[in-house]
Amino acid sequence: MYSTNMSSILQSGVRFRAYPDTGLASILARWIGCQRFIYNSKVSEDRLFAAQRRLELVWGNSEVKAPLDQAYAQFKDRELTPWLYEVPSQILRNGAVRWMNAKRRQLKKLGNAPRRRTRRDFNSVRVTGELFRFVQTAAGPVIQLGTKAEPVGRLPFKAHRPFGLPKSIVLREVAGQWFVSFCYEHESNVIARKPHELAYELNALDDATLARVTLGLDRNVADNCVATSAGEQLRFDPLTVKRMQRKEIGAKRYQRRMARSQNGSANRRKLVRRLARRLDYATRVRNDFAHRLTYRLVNSEARFFVLEDLKVGNMSRRPKAVKDERTGKWLRNRAKAKAGLNRKILASCWGRIDAFLRYKAGKKNKLVGKVPAQNSSRGCSRCGHIHADNRDARRFVCVRCGLTLHADHNAGINIKTLGIGALRDGAFFVEKPKKRIAFRRTDSIPTGGTPEVACGANISPDPRPAWVRQCATKQESCVARRRSIGL
């Protein structure tokens, strides 16, 4: 007998505001710094090994392989790095794990090579289950950090929604405020299906039903909103826009005061914290707007959302310098105007809306597709005529059939039509393969050859000059010291 109460296991992520005291905040800041040091040391070590391997390849030694591991003990030294002994070893290990995750993304061609990080872009610490546990108190749940034998302290946090128990947490400091974020598994009554399965199901619908459950979305810059094919315009609240403008004015004022302050003074640190809070306000507002907008879309009757395939990175790239071939002087390339457009594009939450809509629609078994953006704003949604004169700012008037609509509404209808056509043509039927890469353990032989070669038998003379062999020997003798200081 099979049960009809089928369910699936889903992962959800939460982010709560944490309230550590002064002592615990100092300890967490030390954990962040040590984990960042291990991460940067692994980056430098990987670069050193890659450079050494390239040098060996030049001299024909193709069997040498650069080591790829999560070892971190070589960076601990009582004289050079005594502060690493003041934090739990799990914190240092997690720094090496974070580097390995970034390295694997590079090998899968999902991201760039890991690079050295600073306090600006690496101000968090990953804590695994050995160093935390959730404790229920009269005031609410708290996180007990440390082990039972060596407790560090209790971290209160504000849980604004129910959550499950995670295996690891991330503690982050943003503009003087602390946050705890983690993922947890939970059961869902909805059986999650893959996008290509949803595409087959939608393709089986008749034209009228498919048109009713399809929604085209046009992401705009001028109005800072999302226009739908149904004629809706979803935008920021006017009061919120005014608040962001005031915060931006206040941020510029604090920047001017910081320019006159003394480096390293307490007043400057206070100004930096206030400036960061004003800049962080706009980030939170945009995240909240993207979450509210996508929540509203996913809970509508639409089952197929169509977006333009916008290359945000290319669209927000600065223009190249232009030189006059005849005079040799640099010409105006409107870089200042393009910088203003880039800020508008990045402030319009295009990427956030895309990412949030995809994962929320996936939980509801709804499909999100992308279509080319060419001529979606200049083509007529009724007769299909494409001409630049059709659009006059926000007003769309077709020069052939006379259709008059809001330009963004017309673009949303065109995007919807393109999405339905792509679905009928089978553009979403193919399952996207996941990029995978396997790691296999190898023998720890420096030359990468057989044990006989490693012991010194049948070794051909080194063809390199004497001064190169001497430099290589000195370099090998200094590897341990270099690795301990992260060079």
Report on this model:
This protein is of the alpha+beta class and 487 residues long. It has 2 domains: 8-188, no CATH class; 195-424, no CATH class. Helix content is 41%, strand content 19%. The chain is built from 13 helices and 17 strands. The chain has helices at 22-58, 89-107, 195-203, 207-213, 238-260, 266-298, 312-315, 335-346, 350-363, 407-424, 451-455, 466-477, 479-485; strands at 8-18, 124-128, 132-137, 140-146, 151-158, 168-174, 177-188, 214-219, 225-228, 233-235, 304-308, 322-323, 330-331, 367-371, 391-392, 395-397, 404-406. A 7-stranded antiparallel beta sheet has the order 2-6-7-1-5-4-3. A hairpin with a 2-residue loop joins strand 3 and strand 4 (140-146). Helix 1 crosses helix 2. The longest helix is centred in the first third of the chain and has 37 residues, at 22-58. The relative contact order is 0.12. Residues 442-487 have low confidence and may be disordered.
Itemize the secondary structure elements and their pairings.
Blueprint: E1 8-18, H1 22-58, H2 89-107, E2 124-128, E3 132-137, E4 140-146, E5 151-158, E6 168-174, E7 177-188, H3 195-203, H4 207-213, E8 214-219, E9 225-228, E10 233-235, H5 238-260, H6 266-298, E11 304-308, H7 312-315, E12 322-323, E13 330-331, H8 335-346, H9 350-363, E14 367-371, E15 391-392, E16 395-397, E17 404-406, H10 407-424, H11 451-455, H12 466-477, H13 479-485
Parallel strand pairs: 8-11, 11-14
Antiparallel strand pairs: 1-5, 1-7, 2-6, 3-4, 4-5, 6-7, 8-9, 9-10, 12-13, 15-16, 16-17
